[in-house]
Amino acid sequence: MTLPARSCLPLPAAFALLALLAACSPEPPAETPPPAIDAQAPPDRPDPPPVDQAALRRERAESARAATARAEAAAASPASRNMRDYLAGVEEALIARGRLRTDAGTEIALTAEKLTDDFVEVALHDEYVREGGKLVSRATPAPLRRWQQPVLVRLEFGDSVSPDHRARDRAEIAGFADRLTRVSGHPVTLTGAAGNFNVLILNEDERRAIAPRLSALMPGIPPDDIAALRDLAPQNYCAVFAYSNGNSPVYSQAVALIRAELPPRLRRSCLHEEMAQGMGLANDSPRVRPSVFNDDEEFAYLTRHDELLLQILYDPRLRPGMTEAEARPIVLQIARELLATEV
């Protein structure tokens, strides 16, 4: 603490003394001018050498040709060729039967009650259960699960994926991530850095050797899930696993596997379905339509119906961990509001 100074003289005398001291103070010395600066200006930097644009283009073209050659060699294995032929036949047959529709199915009437039932089917059930160390396909009731942190999608390709396919897949995923953000209100972004939602696009040989990469990419991933992805049956064109910490209903990471041999429409369909399911719409059901979450492959891409399911899932009136009994009346109210705005 600093105390104020006090004078011991009577007040008029104190002022007189101060005046006297001021009068007796010597004149301040004149300021000495600073010495002149004796330094040379820095020399001009030489101009950077001109960039040989033609050489740069040749280098990039050569790099692309080398990458394409590596991809062709990796994709030329008997297993990968057989899978590519099989999937091309599947897509052709589905389209011939009127499947893999690319429209929104707007002729299918939707009611709030039907949308609520569909949400319960897709968001409040798991598609698989674990039995005896294996994943068994059986719809089972589950709590509501979704992400709270931003979803950062990281894309990884096997050597078998050519530069052209990589560019198309990257553009498709970036655009679809923007759509998921717009629809759900939850941030989803394609990142070139570390992510929490890994999308792997691999051919047969690369997928069969996936175990060490998955263990390094996602420490703690269950061995059964690694085996399920490694041994994916031919009729399963893609798959996704989403994980939370412990028993939390909040997702913290996910991994999706897309077959590199998929033809264009099935490939895009897989990207739509697995990324949307990884957001928390975990189940498929034959009763849900018009929807990509239906194993009869009627619709190839995310429909308006599916967008409504995402809007409901990320509505703030719902919370992770809710059971069907807790969520259903709230979902019904949200569904009524959403459909009323579309009239």
Could you characterize what this model shows?
The protein is an alpha/beta fold and 343 residues long. The protein folds into two domains: 68-98 and 146-279, no CATH class; 108-129 and 281-343, no CATH class. 44% of the residues lie in helices and 15% in strands. The chain contains eleven helices and eight strands. It has helices at 11-24, 53-75, 78-96, 112-123, 163-184, 204-208, 211-217, 223-230, 264-277, 304-313, 324-341, and strands spanning 125-131, 134-141, 146-147, 151-157, 188-191, 197-202, 238-244, 250-259. The strands form two sheets. Strands 3, 4, 5, 6, 7 and 8 form a six-stranded mixed sheet that branches. Strand 4, helix 5 and strand 5 (188-191) form a beta-alpha-beta unit. Helix 5 (163-184) runs parallel beside helix 9 (264-277). The longest helix has 23 residues, at 53-75. The model is unreliable at 1-26 (pLDDT under 50).
